[in-house]
Amino acid sequence: MKPKKRILLAKPGLDGHDRGAKVVAMLLRDAGMEVIYTGLRQSIDQIITTAIQEDVDVIALSILSGVHKQVSRKIMAKLKEKGLSGIPVVVGGVIPPRDVPELKKLGVREVFPVHASFDRILEFFRTDLSEEATPVF
Amino acid sequence: MDEVLEIQREKERWRKGLLETKKFSRASTSWGQELDAVYDPGEVKETKYLRDIGFPGQFPFVRGVYPSMYRGRPWTMRQYAGYGTPEETNTRFKYLLEQGQMGLSVAFDLPTQIGFDSDDPLVEDEVGRVGVAVDTLRDMEIIFQGIPLDKITTSFTINPTASIILAMYVAVAEKQGVPPDKIGGTLQNDILKEYMARGTQIFPPAPSLRLTGDIIEYCKDHVPRMNTISICGYHMREAGCSLIQEVALCLLDAIVYVEEAVKKGIHVDQFAPRLSFLIGCGMNLFEEVAKFRATRRLWARIMKDRFKAKNPDSMKMRVFSGCLATCFTATEPLNNIARGTIMTLVAALSGCQAIHTTSYDEAYEIPTEDSVRIAMRTQQIIACETDVPSVADPMGGSYFLEYLTNCIEKEVEKEMSRIEDRGGILKCIEDGSIGREIALQAYELEKNIQSGKKVVVGVNKFTSGEEQREVELYEPREDILQRQLSRLKEVKESRDQEKVTQALAQVRRIAAGGENLLPPILEAVRAYASVGEICNVLKVVFGEYQETT
User: Fold this and answer.
1) Across the strands, what pairs with A111?
2) Contact between B371 and B363 (Cβ < 8 Å)
3) Structural element, H or E, at residue B70
4) Hey, what long-range contacts does A40-43 have (CB within 8 A, 24 or more apart)?
5) Does the beta-carbon distance from A97 to B439 stay under 8 Å?
6) A116: nearest CA in chain B?
7) Using the beta-carbon criterion (under 8 Å), do A16 and B443 form an inter-chain contact?
8) Which of A58, B128, B282, B450 has the smallest number of CB atoms closer than 10 Å to its CB?
9) Between chains, do A66 and B130 touch, taking CB under 8 Å as contact?
10) B179 by DSSP, 3-state: which?
11) Cβ pair A67:B129 closer than 8 A
């Protein structure tokens, strides 16, 4: 039996709104995945440490305050620095569709802006995330 | 009595006819209670008008907190605003005042709300983003430049750092030559809802409640026109809880705050008149209006029976209401103007003292001047072109409304008992059980929307395929951080550092002791100590809150 997929759901930065993150956490748990929710106010370092400790398959960031580009840039750089570029990163929250290409260029595997459907979220997380993300230059 | 029996008999006959109709869908309240097809006097036969409803401005205040209601004083149009630099905020404030807004409402950035200075490397991405950055008194001076603090009132959406912001407001007024007893407004200052739904808490509950008590005590003596707390139900509701829980949690929090002040030896009548509330207005017009009426009655009874208040002003639930923004959509955003109208109407029909109408573009950007103007015009149209403000509690007497008012009261009492039985609100916050419950309800609601069971027009029914509007994020200009940094540096260089050090030491001393923290915080603020410096001192003494996930 395949081991349960392990997802780290994190709230980076100062934003305290966690309704979306919690709803997605429950959705993924109901779908049979293991979700580790970090709680609020996580620094990039804390997120990466937890990702390693929990041996997760994917890091999912919930960002509503508009800092998604800055946070993505920083986390992708940190992961690379630590030799952890193999862990896919996805971002959800208040993301303008026009920012999606830039996030993907940074190496973010997938982006879920507001109103992302449950179906779309589940479809993504059910795929084999261990495929290497090919950064587009 | 005879008439009621006759009505009941006739209703049975009428209902038989109804059941023979081919099509008759079910309807229920948002908390799942089945609704009848129509309501009649029979539903409310237990209600005694004078005991249970009364007149506006009289216990139990169901019909409103003032006798004259809007004919004596129209509701305050108070739109939440603030972003970027203190200068931009000042400009937006002046614009709103010109457009007819009567009171200001300040949105602060997250670093300010959570006790960080703009120069803290942890927060560089957040400075000036979701609200205005305030590091020292200098920033507050700029925000209120040219705005006479004795002529307007200001609402501050600020919680763990409320004491610092209050001190700054007092200090700015001082510089304008306005004594503290002439300034007024509201401090949100509701720390318990932060743990449950909003997430800007800094310290653990006990010292946070001490700070709340200190603010109440200080204002009672020095800033009597300041509403010391805006006790919120709104945020838990937006986090996903039910209408019933919105009220129950709000009132349970209120009880904790009252107890905190009473513990300090302050008599309830000395501070309760300055407690205020923040409750959402939603789309289910009747249950929402009923909610406000039921909550007023519940609060009046809590203050009178439980806390033995004698002053009727202590029993009045004065409310600021904001449209539940989670009802708004990013798809077909102009539809939100209709939604905003309905929710604003709810607030006006409910006798709220101040109203914020959510702008139609809230789902994808910080409101533009145009969209916020429409929001204000919505309020102005209801105020000036309809007969809603002509009469207090105009919906009172509707059988459906009175029935719902009674229902909601009962359900809220049940919910409050349930939480008390589990150890009380503080325990349920600390063990994370309330947070989990709220999240579960949010999940259920989202499932219902995704499945189409809950209709959202334009989104899952009556869709047009219209391109979803591009989210326009407010990008704080590159220079905002730089400007804050250079201003903070300049303030730090030009202030009397010795004075700051001494003031901070005094804050620390008092924090570790039991005296009121406002005087030392005011001294620190006058010396241009920063939000971060003051909070760091408090963190040393109080510790930091650890979330239970």
Assistant:
1) A91
2) no
3) helix B69-72
4) A40/A11, A40/A15, A40/A16, A40/B199, A40/B547, A41/A11, A41/A13, A41/A14, A41/A16, A41/B114, A41/B199, A42/A10, A42/A11, A42/A12, A42/A13, A43/A12, A43/B122
5) no
6) B450
7) no
8) B450
9) yes
10) coil
11) yes
Q: Which two tokens stand for residue A48?
A: 């990466």
Reported ipTM: 0.91
Residues listed for chain B? 549
Q: Taken in order B456, B459, B464, B469, is the CA torsion positive or negative?
A: positive
- φ, ψ of residue B28 to 5 degrees: the values are -145, 165
**Token pair listed for B134:** 């305030």
Q: What is the pLDDT along chain B (549 residues), one digit of tens a residue?
A: 688 899 999 999 999 888 888 788 899 999 999 999 999 998 888 899 999 999 999 999 999 999 999 999 999 887 776 667 899 889 988 988 887 776 788 889 999 999 999 999 989 889 988 889 999 999 999 999 999 999 999 999 999 999 999 999 999 999 999 999 999 999 999 999 999 999 999 999 999 999 999 999 999 999 999 999 999 999 999 999 999 999 999 999 999 999 999 999 999 999 999 999 999 999 999 999 999 999 999 999 999 999 999 999 999 999 999 999 999 998 899 999 999 999 999 999 999 999 999 999 888 777 888 898 999 999 999 999 999 999 999 999 999 999 999 999 999 999 999 999 999 999 999 999 999 999 999 999 999 999 999 999 999 999 998 877 777 776 777 788 999 999 999 999 999 999 999 999 999 999 999 999 999 999 999 999 999 999 999 999 999 998 877
The distance from CA B107 to its chain's CA centroid, rounded to whole angstroms, is 13
Chain B segment 250-279 residues within 8 A of A by beta carbon are none
Query: Contact at 8 Å (CB) between A15 and A63?
Result: yes
Pick the residue from chain A with its C-alpha nearest to B471.
A96
Q: Tell me how close the Cα of B399 comes to any Cα of chain A, in angstroms.
A: 36
A96 interface with B at CB cutoff 8 Å: yes
**Full-model pTM:** 0.94
Cβ separation of A96 and B240 shorter than 8 Å? no
Which residues in chain B have their CB less than 8 angstroms from residue A65's CB? 110, 126, 129-130
Q: How far is CA B125 from CA A45, B109, B257, in A?
A: 16, 11, 34
**Burial class for B121, CB neighbours closer than 10 Å (0-12, 13-18, 19+):** exposed
Residue in A38, A43, A70 closest to B122 by CB: A43
Using an 8 Å CB-CB cutoff, list chain A residues near B443.
22-23, 26-27
Q: Which of chain A's residues have a Cβ under 8 Å away from the Cβ of B447?
A: 118
Tokens 């904790």 locate to B256
B364 interfacial to chain A (CB closer than 8 Å): yes
Tokens representing B498 are 């010795």
**Which residue's structure tokens are 């996580």?**
A42
